[in-house]
Amino acid sequence: MTPTVTPPAIKEKKPASEHIFPATHLTKLAIRWKELNDKGRHAEAMPVLEEIIIGSTQMFERLAQHEDFHYTVDLKILVAAAQEKVVRWLLSWKPQKGRLFSFFSKCAKNAFRSEIVKAVQYRKRYHVTSDNLESFFGQEDHTAYRNDAASELKKSIESISVRWGDPQEIGAIMYLISCVVEEDEIDKQRAIRSAAYAWAISPELSKFFYSWVLMELRDKMYAKVYIPFTQQDLFRHHYSYTHLVDLLNIITWEQLRKIIAVMGGTRLKIPTIAQMVRMTEDHKIFEEIDAGDKDPVAVEETAKKNKRSPRNAQEIYEEMVHTLHHDRTGEFPLYE
Q: What is the pLDDT of residues 101-112, one digit of tens each?
């Protein structure tokens, strides 16, 4: 009698794209679990639920790591928070409205964010380490000086001086200061347009004055602002792939901290050596033209001497007239 040979069981192959989350298999289990749960067969549904949770765990781990949530909260806590909510997600999931993977991933992200909020709120109330946080954050408390803050702020603002002597420009700056200080909700665009219209200055100049006012006010209130700056080493590591760290070879750490506080978020285009040389040459051409008769013949001779065109020399002279105007020299009191 020929013995019966049992053929080996054929294992179901996972699709290549389902190596982290076996969606095909878990979707069938999820539908099966919903059917058993609807019929009240909870004893049969429990093993199915356990298999769904185990099959989803790897996806929860990878998702938390991909979104960098595990830097704030421990990975095991995040995964556990997602696992304990799988039952609620299965009850809410409807196959006709979307895939199980998409639904689980969205729900898991929200669960991770909830755990981060809990952790952050806890850390605000309790320090779980014995480190002295005063070495990392400022320890001066200015709440005792609240009553004098208004008068000190007024004195600081009244001591502001500007490097422009044009009365129209001074009036525009005073108006912009009042918009920033006195209004609860600042409408930046409205303030810029109003200053340009009322004091007959260009919109570009009004926009620059608005930016300058913000920096000047920050400078005046710098001593009263409580800013939790981190240590210099942390700054060097965080910005190691930028030119900001190279500034510490030119200026001190305290000077850089003040630049960050006063001018943070402002883009500065540093001139090149060639631009500085060109500016010096233009000034020399201006002086030669200004010392001459200023007629076209004299301008042409000066241009030829400096290897420039007559038109370029004339433009340089006109530009330098505005650049060297006395309104741009010195400091002018804003509030007399």
A: 888 888 888 888
3-state secondary structure of 150: helix
Distance CA 273, CA 276 (A): 5
Closest-CA residue to 180 (of 224, 120, 220) = 220
Alpha-carbon distance 82 to 62, whole Å? Answer: 12
Task: Tell me the per-residue pLDDT of 19-76, one tens digit each, with 9 for 90 and over.
Answer: 788 888 888 898 889 888 888 888 888 899 899 999 889 888 988 888 888 887 888 8
Q: Which residues pair with 332 in a beta bridge?
A: 162
Domain ranges of the chain: 18-125, 160-220, 226-269, 273-324
- For 21, other C-beta atoms within 10 Å of its C-beta total 22
Q: pTM for the full model?
A: 0.48
Which phi and psi (to 5°) does residue 305 adopt? -65, -35
Cβ-based neighbour number of residue 33 at 10 Å: 23
